[in-house]
Design a protein that fits this description.
Order of helices and strands: EHEEHEHEEHEHEHEHEEHH
EC number: 2.4.2.17
Catalytic activity: 1-(5-phospho-beta-D-ribosyl)-ATP + diphosphate = 5-phospho-alpha-D-ribose 1-diphosphate + ATP
Number of domains: 2
Radius of gyration: 19 Å
CATH architecture of the largest domain: 3-Layer(aba) Sandwich
Low-confidence stretches: none
GO biological process, one term: L-histidine biosynthetic process
Number of helices: 9
Structural class: alpha/beta
Largest sheet: 6 strands, mixed
Protein name: ATP phosphoribosyltransferase
InterPro entries: ATP_PRibTrfase_cat (IPR013820), ATP_PRibTrfase_CS (IPR018198), ATP_PRibTrfase_HisG (IPR001348), ATP_PRibTrfase_HisG_short (IPR024893)
Bound molecules: adenosine-5'-triphosphate, 1-O-pyrophosphono-5-O-phosphono-alpha-D-ribofuranose, magnesium ion
Strand content: 25-35%
CATH topology of the largest domain: D-Maltodextrin-Binding Protein, domain 2
Strand order of the largest sheet: 2-3-1-4-11-5
Length: 214
């Protein structure tokens, strides 16, 4: 049995068509069912639903053999014990710095101001500001980062930006892009040795779906 870890929402929705190209179908809809283990039309493949930020942990500790996780999540996790063979080019966005529309970020940085930055991504933010030589106090949040500057809790946020709609709706502007994000296939290294054949087959399914010429 091969266990594939996915998170509900965009990762599940964007992974489904890749599997479908090889005729693999998940037999239950996570939006309708409360089940966390979903069968597929392949008797030897099942899907487990976990929080997006838990996918690397499930694969690292063998709760799943393979999974799909955003690079943002993988960087914060650290990637220990994970083989990362393929960029699936799904769930694409950026990690960016954003500030309230009236705030002169460039000026604050030039002045050497100490910035309070709210984020769900402390590892990415710490590394980015350290490289720039900007002093920051990081405030760890688990969601709704946009609210932090609006309530005066932070000067800036480090968050994911795709269309920019969330920033615009909250009167924030993107001032720097830190890195592009897409989702990676992650594989448990021990499982890859023990279940070599079926895992290589599934990795090929994903590779063909996102690089059809290969
Ligand atoms: P949770 O609800 O458990 O806190 P989450 O908000 O991180 O999880 P998703 O929003 O489904 O869960 O995000 C999963 C992954 O999809 C992220 O890790 C990121 O790589 C990518 N992603 C997040 N937001 C966007 C977006 N607006 N556009 C494109 N990709 C995104
Ligand atoms: C994500 C992210 C941003 C938003 C950016 O939130 O955390 O808030 O998308 O996308 P945009 O630039 O296209 O507006 P998500 O939709 O995942 O909601 P969440 O708060 O439930 O994570
Ligand atoms: Mg989200």
């Amino acid at each position: 049995m091969i266990t594939l870890a996915l998170s509900k929402g965009r990762i599940f929705d964007e992974t489904l068509p890749l599997l479908a190209e090889a005729g693999i179908q998940v037999l239950e809809d996570p939006e309708k069912s409360r089940k966390l283990i979903l069968p597929t039309n392949q008797p030897e493949l099942r899907v487990v639903l976990v929080r997006a930020s838990d996918v690397p942990t499930y694969v690292q500790f063998g709760g799943a053999d393979i999974g799909v996780a955003g690079k943002d999540v993988l960087i914060e996790h650290g990637g220990q014990g994970l083989y990362q063979p393929l960029d699936l080019q799904i769930a694409k966005c950026h990690v960016s710095v954003a500030v309230p529309a009236g705030f002169d970020y460039a000026h604050a940085v030039r002045q050497g101001a100490r910035l309070r930055v709210a984020t769900k991504y402390p590892a990415i933010a710490r590394e980015f500001f350290a490289r720039k030589g900007v002093h920051v106090d990081l405030v760890k949040l688990y969601g709704s980062m946009e609210l932090a500057p609006l309530t005066g809790m932070a000067d800036a946020i480090v968050d994911l930006v795709s269309t920019g709609n969330t920033l615009r709706a909250n009167n924030l502007v993107e001032v720097e892009q830190i890195m592009p994000i897409s989702s990676q296939l992650v594989v448990n290294q021990a499982a890859l040795r023990l279940k070599q054949l079926p895992l290589r087959h599934l990795m090929d399914v994903f590779a063909r779906a996102c690089h059809p010429e290969a």
